[in-house]
Write a structure and sequence with these properties.
CATH architecture of the largest domain: 3-Layer(aba) Sandwich
Strand order of the largest sheet: 2-1-3-4-5
Number of strands: 15
Strand content: 25-35%
Mean pLDDT: 93
Radius of gyration: 20 Å
Helix content: 25-40%
CATH superfamily of the largest domain: Response regulator
């Protein structure tokens, strides 16, 4: 059984290229509609009920994010298509939603579609889409939420509640202010790439900390966090770390 898909992009050439690549490279996808008009896309989503929507981020009049927010109960899987845009990619990543960067590479398309098909089977699209919409309305990074893949599935937690992340044999243990720690199926590198440009810092190859929770720094090279966690700061990272704090 094929996954039904709708393509939305205001650029005629981009739309044609994406359609051609999907038809050649992704046999598991059945394209049931396409449009260059985001307002028409809202109607098509309601009429066709696609399982997957390829959605351009930057469109005149209504962005891909605006379109998603305007959709009633967006339970379809989304793959955003965007020119390289750090803000957009960060927002999408925090919610574990797929994205492709223009010009779309064949290998990226295949991998992202394969992941989307698995996600459709897990039926997590609605809550991830709602989380993205919620996060886009929050200005302060610490007040946003993040998707954490776990061994059982995924959890949605407030960033400000995360005190630190600790790498353990390819997994990551995450510690919180007021709840039990959890083990994620992703590595410490995953969380570092997701959070390092914001309020988090990798003080040691196995320790990523939330700067929001720092209470004290000791000259011996130890940082004290909320809940009295004592974390070592690598010698080669101390100078940069102290500059970050200043």
């Amino acid at each position: 059984m094929k996954v039904t898909a709708l393509l939305v992009d205001d650029e005629r050439k981009s739309l044609a290229i994406l359609k051609n690549k999907l038809e050649r490279l992704c046999p598991g996808i059945s394209i049931i509609g396409e449009t260059r008009d985001p307002k028409e896309a809202l109607t098509l989503i309601e009429q066709l009920q696609p399982q997957l929507v390829f959605l351009d981020v930057a469109m005149p009049g209504m962005s891909g994010f605006d379109l998603l927010a305007s959709t009633k109960s967006p339970s379809f899987e989304v793959i955003f298509v965007t020119a390289f845009d750090n803000y957009a990619i960060d927002a999408i990543n925090h919610c574990a939603i797929g994205y492709l960067v223009k010009p779309v590479k064949n290998e990226d398309l295949i991998a992202t579609v394969d992941k989307a098909i698995l996600n459709i089977e897990e039926k997590t699209a609605l809550i991830k889409n709602q989380l993205l919409i919620e996060n886009l309305g929050v200005r302060t990074f610490q007040k946003k939420k993040i998707v954490i893949p776990t061994l059982e599935g995924m959890e949605f937690v407030k960033i400000k509640e995360i005190i630190r992340c600790e790498g353990e044999d390819g997994y990551t243990k995450i510690y919180f202010k007021a709840r039990k720690s959890m083990l994620s199926s992703h590595s410490i590198g995953h969380f570092n790439s997701l959070l390092e440009n914001h309020d988090f810092y990798l003080v040691h190859k196995s320790h990523l900390i939330n700067l929001y929770h720092i209470e004290k720094y000791l000259n011996e090279g130890t940082v004290i966090l909320s809940n009295n966690y004592k974390i070592p700061v690598s010698r080669n990272r101390r100078s940069d770390f102290l500059s970050k704090l200043k």
